[in-house]
Amino acid sequence: MSLPVAFVGGNKGGVGKSLASMALIDYWLSQKPAKPVFLVETDTSNPDVAHAYGKTVPHYLPQISERDGWIDLVDKLDEPEQRKSCIVVNLASQSNGFWEQYGSILLTGLQEMKRPAICLWLINRQKDSLELLAEFRDMAAGVKIHVVRNAYFGEERKFELYNGNALRGEIEGEGGKSVTFPELADRITDRLYTERMTVAEAGGKGMLLGSQAEVQRWQRECAAVFAQMGL
Predict the structure, then answer these.
(1) At 1, is the pLDDT very low, low, confident or very high (cuts 50, 70, 90)?
(2) Which of 59, 91, 144, 176 has the most crowded Cβ, counting Cβ within 10 A?
């Protein structure tokens, strides 16, 4: 079975895309045996995920503002090593416009490779999160979308705009899941970004015991979320 290509998006800054990308990489690397992972970092102006995992997994930074960048990305994913890897694509903010212009190049390439494409779409509690989700869904035909409520913005019941929206029923009717991404203590996320650490490093030996326990708790909860999506 072909390994998945997972897009982690939200199309706006601050919804938790980078942290969710790190969590998914950590989840796949933590499997027994570990799954090979290839990172595509499209946020070339602020590549937090590549900074944290650049020494841990192979990665690639395409120029998605240009048609040639999408062509090059398809060619990169078609290389033998990437064919044998799970792919995590951290989508930059404001990427929907580029998807509308060029996304069909990538989706056609993935179909030819027989690579299943999924999207973890991070939302907060604001209306524009849903509008951007609907926009992406319209232009990404064939991509199974899972909606990820980021608990940083509140518990599940507080996402009233999404929970009661017809869009939720449509996405779930297509096989997508609605899940809640667990919050991680600020002191840990600060270290991931400022010290460019992986999740495993942030919860590993040499860290204070409280931090280790918090990371391990978060990893377990993330694993349960990803399992709901069939990852």
Answers:
(1) low
(2) 91
